[in-house]
Specification:
- The structure is a single chain.
- With 413 residues, the protein is an alpha/beta fold.
- Helix content is 28%, strand content 20%.
- α6 (214-230) packs parallel to α7 (256-274) and α9 packs parallel to α10 (374-387).
- It is globular, with a radius of gyration of 22 Å.
- The termini are far apart.
């Protein structure tokens, strides 16, 4: 009997491959610690010497290290020394309607990436209405017609176009704001808190699904998984929060503790299902998350998100801060200070290298109506550099950008 169990143990062990390696920066040969090495089920961390050991019955492993591109290697690799490519992501937002292979908007952005420091795009893979950029393999969304307004008919060509240019790709997934999903699933749509329990819609007439409900979690994560499958480097969850409105009806009591737990649960599920693709996970937040002492009634705090996501992406639009913030009557007139001081304020909770803010590329909508041109754009970018973030993401609602505004030195061309 002992021999039988010994043979069984040996057979089980033989199913698992063990890989030991060292992670180095491809440019500086610096050892990389605290990197995440994973298969589809679990992960380990590299130590202070950049070393790691992982055992799995799988053959493909992924590496995620903050400030580096995602990396994949095979268990049968000839070398145990792995070189990761460093990157500070400098991304331009590409609208849902601009994300087709032949759009002029895309062509303009590709040209800017060739001639400025921009090196990444944020693409609407699922927008606020619930439409998807391409035909996904997610049958539930397709049954609602999520693919009908898709703007890209050849996603393989689209991704190859970006990858051939070494462009870092970020898939924006609008999470709980989803008209299509909510209208087709009124049983877990957010309701008005009244006897009729009608579906609630916000100011732009869009319905939301309940962040407490696992079905809403699985839906958004399924679309994120489709984005990972086609090769996006990062999943960016937007509207990963509760609506900023009181007196709505949810499946659970809307307390701060419950709200925070719901968002954390979502991110844990996303991490589990996306692990096998090696994609980074980032989370969009209001800019004032950097200053709030509570969850703002929406389930987001810096500490809770930092513990469950790779990157934090606060929308640090100077126009989004009220008069008196930072002791400025008009914060929009002080773009550098708004960005720098906000990120500096949370450094004791999350290192700046894991923060990548959204920056303002649109005219101020507050009382001064300040035009945002080259000085304001460059001031925000400089603030991210001075405080040491993982780059930035630029928000232009129309995805129209100027070379003069973005180039470090526009006179050299």
């Amino acid at each position: 009997m002992k021999i039988f169990f010994l043979i069984l143990f040996i057979l089980q062990e033989s199913l698992f491959a063990s890989f030991q390696g060292v992670l180095l920066d491809a440019k500086t040969s610096k050892l990389i610690d605290n990197a995440i090495i994973s298969d589809s089920l679990h992960d380990v961390r590299s130590d202070k010497n950049g070393s790691f050991a992982i055992q799995s019955k799988e053959k493909i492993y992924h590496v995620k290290a903050y400030g580096y591109r995602p990396f994949q290697f095979h268990a049968d690799s000839n070398s145990s020394t792995l070189y990761l490519q460093p990157i500070k992501v400098k991304a331009l937002y590409l609208t849902f309607w601009g994300a087709s292979n032949n759009s002029q908007t895309l062509k303009n952005i590709l040209k800017l990436i060739e001639t400025t420091e921009a090196n990444a795009v944020v693409v609407d893979v699922k927008n606020e209405y619930g439409s998807t950029q391409f035909w996904t393999g997610f049958k539930q969304a397709n049954s609602y017609g999520a693919h009908k307004n898709r703007t890209n008919r050849n996603i393989k060509k689209f991704m190859k176009m970006l990858k051939d240019r070494n462009i870092y790709t970020i898939a924006r997934i609008v999470t709980f704001k989803d008209e299509l999903q909510a209208s087709n699933n009124p049983n877990y749509a957010i309701k008005k808190d009244n006897k009729k329990q009608a579906i609630w819609r916000n100011h732009d007439n869009m319905a939301w699904v309940d962040p407490f409900d696992k079905r809403s979690h699985n839906y958004a994560i399924s679309i994120a998984e489709e984005a990972a499958k086609v090769g996006y480097d990062e999943i960016n969850f937007d509207y990963i929060r509760f609506p900023a409105k009181k007196d709505l009806l949810f499946s659970k009591k809307s307390t701060q503790k419950n709200r925070i737990q719901a968002i954390e649960n979502f991110l844990d599920r996303a991490k589990q299902r996306l692990r096998k693709y090696g994609v980074f996970i980032s989370v969009d937040t209001y800019g004032n998350i950097c200053w709030a002492k509570d969850d703002n009634g929406i389930g987001q705090t810096v500490s809770s998100l930092a513990a469950h996501a790779d990157y934090l992406a606060p929308m640090l639009y100077p126009s989004g801060f009220s008069s008196g913030s930072f002791n400025f009557k008009y914060p929009s007139k002080h773009p550098y200070e708004v960005v720098y001081r906000s990120i500096k304020h949370i450094q004791n909770i999350i290192p700046s290298s894991r923060v990548r803010p959204w920056l303002q590329y649109f005219r101020d909508y507050t009382r001064p109506k300040k035009i945002y041109g080259r000085p304001e754009i460059q001031a925000q970018i400089k603030a991210t550099e001075d405080v040491g973030t993982n780059g930035w993401m630029m928000w232009s609602p129309s995805s129209k950008y100027s070379f003069v505004y973005l180039a470090k030195d526009p006179t050299r061309f």
